[in-house]
Structure formats: structure tokens, C-alpha cells
Amino acid sequence: MAGRERKQTDLDKGIVIPDDCLGYPLDLFTFPKHYSEDLECVYIPHGVIKDRIERLARNIMDDLGDHDIVVLCVLKGGYQFCADLVDCIKVLCRNSNKTLPMRVDFIRLKSYLNDQSTQDLHIEGAENLSVLSGKNVLIVEAIVDTGKTMKTLLDHVEAFKPKMIKVAGLLVKRVSSGTGYLPDYVGFEIPNRFVVGYALDYNEYFRDLNHICVISDRGKQKYKI
Ligand code: HPA
Ligand code: MG
């Protein structure tokens, strides 16, 4: 592709979804009927999410293979990404000469009400993070927006003196108020819109949706608290 070569840094953001992306009409896909009025479009189809995770797993394996790691899954939104990522790494371990022994741990962060971020961040399950001392840690997070939450979490984890910390973020939001923080492994860079599905919620709804979708105004009203 003469004149169209990509710089390596372009790949660091993963698949970039532009601001003018309209997504796909819902009727081109299947999704739970109970959400038929609540979504605007499909932004990232489930199959594309899975394909991208397969490649992230390979990148992680290339970098960390033959180390021991502790996977730190950030709940609740990160559970599906973490499960699929760990599954892909398991397949790679079975089918290659490299291996990646993994422990999986969970923490829970809370900072959102409706579609707005609140100032206070609560970390639950952080009591036993002393197991991270001297370990290689892979933090698995579904979405990074301003980067402030991740910065707070990294400070917290660093206090336990791990040997190394890497972060895998499925989605990174392009927000003007962002810190510019970019995870080591990024699935997709998305516009600053509120998305749901693939375990991402709006007030606990929509986790039972496979695709990553944009919520409609009606959906926001219906599930508002
Ligand atoms: N959707 C769900 N949860 C979130 C989002 C989002 O767009 N941004 C931060 N947390
Ligand atoms: Mg949430």
C-alpha cells in the first residue's frame, strides 16, 4: 500500500470508530426483544468484538508468554471481556509452545450514576491485593474514558509493589477532558457516546446484550434512577 502505510502508533488505539459513525441498524442483527425501543444502533457487533479480543490475546501472549500473571478483572463491566480474553489465551496456550500461567482475581469499581461519572471512586475487593506483590499484573477493564479512574486504580495497585503492570482496555472513549491515558492493549477507540452491551450497563440494564450498542433517549429515560 504505497503512501498508505500505518504508523505503529495508529495501531495502539485499536480499531478507531470515527465520530460520524452511525453504527448499524438494529434490524440487521438479533438482540433481546425487551430492548427493542431502547437502542439507537449497533456500534460494534459481537463477532467483531470477539475477533478483536482474539488478536489482543495474541499480542498479550507475545509480550508476556512464559511469565506468570495475575489477571485483575474490573467488575462488573469487565467480566465478559475478561472471560473471553482468558478463554482466547487458554486456546493459544494449548496450541503453542509458549505458556502463560494465570491467576484470576476480581475487584469492583463504582463511579457512575445514570450516564454520568461521579467524583468518588469506590474499590471493592481491594483488601486482598497484597497477593499482587512481586507479580506481573494484567488489569482487564471494559472501558476507559477520562482515564482518571484507571489512574486512581493504577496508583492503588502500584502500592502493592507488583513486578509489572499492564492494562487491557476493550474500549477507550475519545473525551476532551481525558488525561490522554492509553492502556497497553486497546480493543477499540470510540466516540464520546454512552454505550451499553457486552457487560457494559446503564443502571445495571443491558449487560444481557451481546453487541456494543448506543442507548436511545427513550432507553435512558426508561432505566433512569
Ligand atoms: N457505558 C457504560 N459504562 C460506562 C461508559 C459507557 O459508555 N463509560 C464509562 N462507563
Ligand atoms: Mg456501569
UniProtKB/TrEMBL annotation:
Domain of life: Eukaryota
GO molecular function: hypoxanthine phosphoribosyltransferase activity; magnesium ion binding; nucleotide binding
One GO-annotated biological process of the protein: hypoxanthine metabolic process
Pathway: Purine metabolism; IMP biosynthesis via salvage pathway; IMP from hypoxanthine: step 1/1
Catalysed reactions listed for this entry: IMP + diphosphate = hypoxanthine + 5-phospho-alpha-D-ribose 1-diphosphate
GO cellular component, one term: cytosol
Compartment(s) where it occurs, according to its Swiss-Prot or TrEMBL record: Cytoplasm
Glycoprotein listed as a keyword: no
Keywords: Cytoplasm, Glycosyltransferase, Magnesium, Metal-binding, Nucleotide-binding, Purine salvage, Transferase
Primary location recorded for the protein, binned into one broad class: cytoplasm
Annotated Pfam families: Pribosyltran
Cofactor: Mg(2+)
Gene3D superfamilies in alphabetical order: 3.40.50.2020
InterPro entries per UniProt: HGPRT, Hxn_phspho_trans, PRTase-like, PRTase_dom
Keyword field contains Metal-binding: yes
Entry EC no(s): 2.4.2.8
PANTHER family linked to this entry: HYPOXANTHINE PHOSPHORIBOSYLTRANSFERASE (PTHR43340:SF8), HYPOXANTHINE-GUANINE PHOSPHORIBOSYLTRANSFERASE (PTHR43340)
Family the UniProt entry places it in: Belongs to the purine/pyrimidine phosphoribosyltransferase family.
NCBIfam families documented for this protein: HGPRTase
Descriptive protein name: Hypoxanthine phosphoribosyltransferase
Organism: Cirrhinus molitorella (mud carp)
Origin organism lineage: Eukaryota, Metazoa, Chordata, Craniata, Vertebrata
